[in-house]
Design a protein that fits this description.
heterodimer; A: mainly alpha; elongated; B: 444 residues; eight-stranded mixed β-sheet; five-stranded antiparallel β-sheet; 11 helices; 21 strands; globular
């Protein structure tokens, strides 16, 4: 099962999601509804990194 | 799709051991540096040992990192910033959740978590619940007094993350909880072994209800060793007609271990998220081979606000000698957490683990679930008394039961006991963690 999953491609999407969310967070510091929700999204993105990205970096 | 997918994380849970070790080393370096850079307490501790982040290059280097004990965490909390002290690695305003230890062994330790830490707690529990067969179709009833103790909070949110329907059984009393399980046809529950057995007893003796006829299919236990003690697990499974699974976690650590649906006689250590070392209590040597018991030293590899780096948990564990048939490549600890280093005591010169007594008592059919062990001094001699409850249907077999108890206890613990057989429902009942072992010698 593990071999069928392309973790590098998944990681690319995760990093894109992270970058977009960080930018949104930075742009909206005066907009609490965006700023606080993006903090939560980034915490979830970190779980994606724990589940996949940490391993990709190991292979690099 | 859900039923076909066996693993929460099909990549990490099937990673070869060699890769897991590489990942652990990489993550240990990261969490060590994070902690060193941000926690004054840890930096001073490591400075006294002459260790800096760049010194960590191998597992041999990790063994040199000083351990942290619970008593140190209590001392830290007398310092700023209030109320956590100088092991806090994030600004106070980033702390999203307060919890504290239950304080069964002294002054409670406060535990701050950021929102990311709380997501991580929930993620750890997601591995547990998925491995135990929780799926979106489940309706999960949680008979837990939601409060400052972490207990089943993370189980609650992990079940939500999995897509289950969660019913919080907070301030209801035991009867009301049982009725709610019946009314909603709950398929899963979470609780301490003591409470799960207590619920079954209440249902049978006070409500005339047979819990095995309800709809509960699986129960996840925590807080006590019981779900890994075969006779206690069997009692719970028979009472509820459900599979009972163990898991291990702690406020200062996280949810680090779990039994999978194969029930392999042990628990998986979630090794991609935690580094578990087993230390020989006498020599301090790190035990790598199966079959030798020691106390657990653990590192939570991703926890940030108040990191857990080489924490001396006092849990007594041993590595299993065979992989699990479930296919997960993470190592198993045989028989779960078999005790705590500070619970194992010498009686008449013999090392005694209270869990061995529970195994014998719960294995005898004529006895109830409750028992009490009292160790006291009689002059210079230790005496150990075991009080048990006989079930009404076995009251005419007291002599036989006593003889069987004495034989089995001598076989399993190498000690002789004074047995007191009590009537049904005469011993104390416990709602959460039970205190059945009373060592009165320590007060003298």
């Amino acid at each position: 099962m593990g071999q069928q999953i392309d973790i590098k491609k998944i990681d690319e999407k995760i990093q894109l999601l992270k970058k977009t969310t960080e930018e949104l967070n930075q742009q909206c510091q005066d907009f609490p509804a965006i700023a606080r929700n993006t903090v939560r999204i980034l915490a979830s993105v970190k779980m994606l990194e724990i589940n996949v990205s940490d391993l990709v970096e190991l292979d690099a | 799709m859900d039923d076909q997918q066996k693993y929460w994380n099909p990549v990490l849970e099937t990673l070869p051991q060699e890769k897991i070790r590489q990942l652990q080393l990489k993550k240990f370096k990261q969490i060590f540096k994070w902690t060193y850079d941000r926690s004054k307490f840890h930096r001073q501790l490591y400075a006294r040992a002459g260790i800096k982040p760049d010194d960590i290059r191998s597992f041999a280097d990790i063994k040199q990192v000083p351990k942290v004990e619970k008593s140190m965490m209590r001392d830290i909390q007398r310092k700023d910033p209030f109320p956590y002290g100088d092991a806090l690695c994030v600004p106070l305003e980033d702390v999203a959740v307060f919890r504290q230890t239950s304080g069964t062994t002294g002054q409670p330790v406060y535990q701050p978590d950021t929102w990311q830490d709380w997501e991580w707690w929930t993620e750890c529990w997601s591995y547990i619940l998925w491995a135990q067969g929780y799926r979106p179709r489940d309706r999960v009833f949680i008979p837990f007094g939601y409060n400052i103790f972490v207990a089943f909070w993370a189980g609650h949110y992990a079940a939500e993350k999995l897509g289950c329907e969660v019913v919080p059984g907070g301030v209801l009393d035991t009867k009301a909880r049982i009725l709610k399980v019946q009314e909603l046809q709950a398929t899963a529950m979470m609780g301490t072994p003591t409470y799960i057995l207590g619920m079954a007893e209440t249902a049978k003796s006070k409500m005339g209800l047979d819990p095995s006829k309800l709809t509960v299919e699986k129960i996840t236990c925590a807080g006590e060793c019981g779900a890994s003690i075969p006779s206690t697990k069997r009692r719970m499974e028979q009472a509820w007609g459900a599979k009972v699974y163990d898991h291990a976690g702690a406020t200062e650590i996280g949810a680090w271990s779990f039994e999978c649906s194969e029930q392999p006689g042990g628990m998986h250590v979630n090794e991609p998220l935690f580094l578990v070392e087993i230390e020989d209590v006498e020599t301090g040597e790190i035990i790598e081979e199966p079959g030798r018991r020691g106390k657990m030293i653990i590192t939570a590899l991703d926890r940030q606000a108040q990191p857990c780096v080489r924490f001396d948990s006092k849990d007594v564990i041993e590595w299993a000698d065979a992989p699990c048939p479930c296919g997960r490549t993470t190592r198993l600890i045989k028989g779960g957490v078999v005790g705590r280093a500070d619970d194992i005591t010498k009686v008449k010169g013999v090392l005694l683990a209270p869990s061995a007594i529970e195994e014998v008592v719960r294995d005898l059919d004529g006895l109830g679930d409750e028992y009490e062990v009292i160790v006291e001094k009689d002059g210079d001699t230790d005496r150990i008394k075991l009080r048990v409850e006989v079930l009404p249907e076995a009251e005419d077999q007291c002599q036989l039961i006593e003889a069987e108890l004495v034989d089995q206890l001598r076989l399993k613990t190498n000690l002789r006991y004074d047995i007191e057989i009590c009537g049904c429902e005469t011993l104390p009942r416990y709602e959460v963690k039970a205190k059945r072992f009373k060592d009165l010698r320590k007060k003298e």
